[in-house]
Every structure is written in C-alpha cells, then in structure tokens.
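Take a look at the protein record below and tell me what you see:
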Amino acid sequence: MRRRWIFIAPLAILGLLLFIVIGGQAVRLLWNWLLPPLFGWRQITFWQALGLLALCRILFGGYGGRGVRSRVRRRMAERWELMTPEERERFRQGMRGRCGFGPAASESQGQ
C-alpha cells in the first residue's frame, strides 16, 4: 500500500499544480480578452488572475459547503414529507407573506 502512495502522491500534486496553472491562465486570458476592450480596464498578470480566481472561489464557491446545503435540503424534504396538506399550504402562505409575494395567510383570512 505504501508503494502505491509513493506514485500517487507526486501525481496528485502535479495534477493540482497543473489545474491551478490552467485555471489562472484561463482567467487571465478571458479577462484580458474581454474587459479592457469593453470597459477600458487594465490587463492583469497571471498572479493577479490567480488571486482573482481564489477570491471568486471564496466569495461564490465557499469552502466545499455542498455538504451543508445538501443536508439542509434533505432535512427540509424530510420535514415536508411529514407535513399534512393543510400544514404545507399554511407554510407556503407564510413564506409568501414573509418574502413579499402576497398577503400572509392571516391577512387574507381577516378581510
């Protein structure tokens, strides 16, 4: 088993470095191709593109939080299945009222 890791670890590191280089180059090329002609912004270097890629990953991609989102969705689906049709409708009406898509259930019943 240890012999296997001796070959896999360097390949994994090389693959990660290759992925980073390709990603940085892609961001740099796309930025320099689109943004200076369209908006008059300056061209960026490879290192700036890599920083931009990392920043976008932090802001929009999270830290591998897919597990958290899937757990929340799964829990909500389980709760939804346990609700009766009346409870589901009350929940929908409450969400519509809170999100600004119409009057809440209590307001529509009162008038």
Remarks:
- The two ends are 73 Å apart (CA to CA).
- The chain has a mean pLDDT of 84.
- Residues 2-39 form the longest helix (38 residues).
- The chain is about 85% helix and 0% strand.
